[in-house]
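Re-run requested by the PI after the first attempt was lost when the workstation crashed. Everything re-entered from the original request form. Ligand of interest: coproporphyrinogen III.
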Amino acid sequence: MSQLKNDRLLRALLREPVDTTPIWIMRQAGRYLPEYRATRAKAGSFMGLCENPELACEVTMQPLDRFPLDAAILFSDILTIPDAMGLGLYFSEGEGPRFERPVQDAAAIRALGVPDPEDELRYVMDAVRLIRKELDGRVPLIGFSGSPWTLATYMVEGGSSKEFAHIKGMMYDDPATMHHLLSVLADTVVAYLNAQIAAGAQAVMVFDTWGGSLSPENYRLFSLQYMQRIVEGVTREAEGRKVPVVLFTKGGGQWLEIMADTGCDALGLDWTVNIADARKRVGDRVALQGNLDPAVLYASPDKVREEARKVLAGFGHGNGHVFNLGHGIHPKIDPENVAALVETVHEDGKQYHAG
Ligand code: CP3
C-alpha cells in the first residue's frame, strides 16, 4: 500500500499535531454535485450505485476532484446491513428507504443471522479495495456503519420514522427481544467494520442518527451499550497505523461525556452543541468532529466563511479538531459554497496550529 500523502485527518482524530484543520463533509458524494447525479442516472438507482464497485468508486472520488478535502468516505449506505440480512431494501422516489420485509415480532428477530461481510456484503469490500487503489495515498479512506439502534429503527419500522412507534413499543414491552436484535446487530457491525478495515478503510465512523430520540436511561441501555461493544470489538491498528473510531449520535450533545467513556477516539457533533463547551466537557479524552449547521450553506459565500471561522475559533488552539458539518449536506446546496468552506477552513485553520 502506498504511503499517505495527506494524513491530517488521521492525525487530528488521534489528537496529534497538524499544519491546519482537516475537513471532510458528511454526504460529500451526493446529489448537490451534478457529476453524482449523472453517475447515479447511469447506475439506474441508488442501490444499483452502491452495489457496483466501479461506480461507487467513481462517486467517492468526485468530491475530491473538485475540492481539496482531507478524506474520502466510502460511498455506500448504512442500510446495506439489513439488506444483507434479508429484509429487502429499496428506495422509492421521494419517500426514502423502505424494507419489503421489516422485522416486527420476536420470531422474525430470532431468525436473523450475522451476514458474512466478504459474502453478502462483498460489493462493499470490493468498493473499499478499489477506492484505496484509486486514491493511491492522496487522503485516507473512512469506512462506516450505522449504530445497532439506528439500524434497528429502520428494520422494525420498515423505513424512516418520526414516532418510532413499533420499535419503542417493542423496547418497552419486550426488552429481551430488543436486546437480542441489538446484540446480533452489534456482532454484525463489528464484523462489517473489521472487514472494511481489512479491505483498506483507515478510520471508521458509527452513525447513530436516531440515538437522540431516546430518554437518557434508554440511550445508555439500547444505544450506547452496543456502540461500546463496537468500540471494543473493532481492529484498532492496520498497516502499521492506528485506526481511529468516531462515534456520532445526532441529538446526543447531552451525552458527550459517557460517549467518550466508551474509549472511542473521536466524537461527531451536530450543530445544536457549542463546540467550545463540548471541548471543555470532554477535555483531551477525544477529538471532536463538526459542527457547522448544514443550512449555513444556503447563505452567501461570505456568510459561509464567517460561520466557518466561528466554528474554528470555538474549538480554538491545539490538536483534535476535524471540521465537518453537523449532519449531511443538503441536495440543493451550490458547490461553490462548499469550495468557499473548504478554502476557509484550510486557510484560517492554520492559526490554531502554529507553534
Ligand atoms: O457521506 C458520504 O458521502 C458517504 C455516503 C453515505 C450515504 N448514506 C449515501 C447516501 C453515508 C455515510 C450514508 C449514511 C446513512 N444512510 C445514514 C446515517 C447518516 C445520516 O445521514 O444520518 C442514514 C440514516 C442513512 C439512510 C438513508 N440513506 C436515508 C434516510 C436516505 C434517503 C435520504 C434522502 O435524502 O433521500 C438514504 C439515501 C442516500 N444515502 C443518499 C446518499 C447520497 C441519497 C440517495 C440518492 O442518490 O437518491
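Saved to the shared folder this time. The two ends are 32 Å apart (CA to CA).
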